Predict the structure.
Amino acid sequence: MQIGWIQLRDFRNYRTLSWSPSPKLNVLTGPNAQGKTNLLEALGFLLTGRSFRTSHLAEVPFWGTAAVAVTGELHRLDGTVTVRRALERLENGAWRSEGAGCSWARAVAFGWHDVEILNGVPALRRNFLDGVAARLYPSHRAALVRFRQILARRNSVLQRGGADAAAQLGPWDEQFAAVGMELVDRRRRATAALQTEISRIYPCLAGECHKIELSYRCSVGEAAEPAALFAALERHRREELRRGQTIVGPHRDDVLVELDGADARVFGSRGQQRLLALALRLAELLPITEATGTSPVLLLDDALSELDPSVRDNVLREIEAAEQVFLTTPEPLPVAAGGRWAIHAGGLAAA
Ligand SMILES: Nc1ncnc2c1ncn2[C@@H]1O[C@H](COP(=O)(O)OP(=O)(O)OP(=O)(O)O)[C@@H](O)[C@H]1O
Ligand SMILES: [Mg+2]
């Protein structure tokens, strides 16, 4: 799929912008703090109605304004859709996101903070995997919201304690096990889809042979049935009541990333971790294309920094195969195809 054109009003440091990008590679260049990442964020917002940078919508409107509008046209082989999105400030000061999306629009975004998928806490790997699963299986996000509600209810019963706590947990446990294993199943499938692709992509980017192994580490081992999670809750009941929190379930799971048999989190160099993070994002492209029937838009923020010149060339070669790509860099790049754009103070011009 491709973004044919986009218009912004009061999105971050863009007062107004009207832009028709190249259908292939777009290189966005400019000094620091001019609006390169903001523009990627706006493209992602058009496609998904979300920011890949923040969950606080109030950060997005140009300072002091009461509304944001993002409109654009999306193309794929069998049609064109105009998408209109808006953020509006309510009387109580909260921000509301408005507008209908497009069922096949997907964005895969990479930013410098993605290295934390490799070297950060397990919650960041779970979030990453939930993002992939949500792009592959649209019901995943709703199940995740439901799971978090059940987890919060269960935790409040555990915190209150008391003689009837075990009886009160009963109905929550059943739902927790059912929705929890639904999440685990999709996360495992997402991991398997990424595994196939990253095994090819990482060696291509690194320019040498490497073995990458992704394994989903689940608190109920290999089990796939809700009954296994239900039984684990029963086994840990006394400990959970003592600690006042749920200690087994998908909110405690992790993904192990091994590079040539060693845990990349512990033994990977910073460059390797960064390249693995980029490879994980690129590994999403094919599974998403197969699931939605059209390839996602790729938003790469500063994806080439800290990489060797030969690895940079490999990355550029790899992304040539993608459909529409937006790549920010502080310095101009010697790329032949696509569009080159200069970003300055919330404005854009052909470079
Ligand atoms: N809501 C907002 N309203 C107005 N300006 C904002 C808002 N949010 C951020 N900015 C400003 O936008 C500017 C550009 O930010 P952006 O992160 O896009 O820069 P960049 O070009 O990616 O820079 P770098 O090369 O350092 O990554 C910053 O100066 C920031 O203060
Ligand atoms: Mg930036």
User: Anything to note?
Assistant: Residues 36-37, 301 surround magnesium ion (ligand 2) (CB under 6 Å). The chain has two domains: 1-106+296-351, 117-293. The radius of gyration is 22 Å.
